[in-house]
Amino acid sequence: MGSQLGEGRIVVGAARTERADSIDLVRRWFDAIAAADLPTAATLMAEPCTITISGGHRFTRLEDFMAYGARRYQAVRKRADQFEACEAAGGLAVYVTGEMSGSWADGMAFAGVRWCDRFLLRSGRIAELQTWSDLAETRIG
Fold first, then answer.
1. What is the pLDDT of residue 16?
2. Quick check: 11 pLDDT over 90?
3. Which CATH code of 3.20.20.450, 3.10.450.50, 3.20.20.70, 3.40.50.10300 fits the domain covering 18-139?
4. 19 CB contacts (<8 Å, ≥6 apart)?
5. Based on CB atoms within 10 Å of each CB, which residue in 48, 51, 66, 127 is the most buried?
6. Residues 119, 51: contact at Cβ < 8 Å?
C-alpha cells in the first residue's frame, strides 16, 4: 500500500523563496563580473539597467561601467561578506556588503575598504545597482 498524505506523516516542502532566488541571481552576477564574463552578467540585467556608483557617476551600459573602472584601477577584488534581500518600492532589493582591495591606476594599493551594493530586481533581472564605498578615504592624506 502506498503512503498517503493525511496519515500523520510529515511533509517537507523544498520550495525556494523569491528572496533566495534573488540572492542567487546577484551571486551569479558577481561571479560573472569577477571572471570578466560580461555577456553572462548582461543576461542577468534588465534593459535598461541603471548603475550609480560613489560620486554620483551613472551608467546605463555594463561596458561603460567596466571601462570606467578599468581607467581608475589596475585591479579590484571584492569580498562579499553578507547578502540580504527585502521587499522594496518597485521590486525586490538585495544588499551586499563586504571589503575590497586592489590598486589604483597609479599603482597605489588599497585594502580593507568597506563597500555596500544595493541591487533592485524586477521580473527576475537586475534593474538598478547603487554602490557605495569608503574607497575615497584611501586617497586622503
1. 74
2. no
3. 3.10.450.50
4. 85, 86, 92
5. 51
6. no
Q: Any long-range contacts for 28-33 (C-beta under 8 Å, 24+ apart)?
A: 29/119, 29/126, 30/78, 30/80, 30/96, 33/66
Nearest alpha carbon to residue 43 among 29, 53, 59, 24: 29
Nearest CA to 78 out of 38, 110, 45 is that of 110
Average pLDDT over residues 48-58: 94
- Other residues' Cβ atoms within 10 Å of the Cβ of residue 86: 10
pTM beyond 0.70, yes or no: yes
Domain ranges of the chain: 18-139
Q: How many CB atoms lie within 10 A of CB 109?
A: 11
